[in-house]
Amino acid sequence: MGTIQHVTDADFEEKVLKSDKPVLVDFWxxxxxxxxxxxxxxxxxxxxxxxxxxxxxxxxxxxATAAANRVTSIPALHVYSGGEMVKQIxxxxxxxxxxxxxxxxxx
Length: 107
Fold this sequence. Notes:
GO terms for molecular function: protein-disulfide reductase activity. It is a single chain. It contains five helices and five strands. By secondary structure, it is α/β, with parallel strands linked by helices. The chain starts with a strand and ends with a helix.
């Protein structure tokens, strides 16, 4: 099962856009309370399936990637497949709602 890795401006293209399976990117920041609330939920999802890769990108440390992906509110969860963003989820949600929204990628 998966563990959550951290990505940066430098390796975003390689680890996310060029991945051979769908990747959920959690755009977050240390000071963001909802980001801290959703982190354990994402850990649970990462540990319970292996169809969807889950990574985190700190927007304060990696502003170029956050800006290029038009992240204006966090937490922002973007799913990329084949180098393209295919789903966007904004805000912290309970695990059941996240799993429902991610159904086609984690089912």
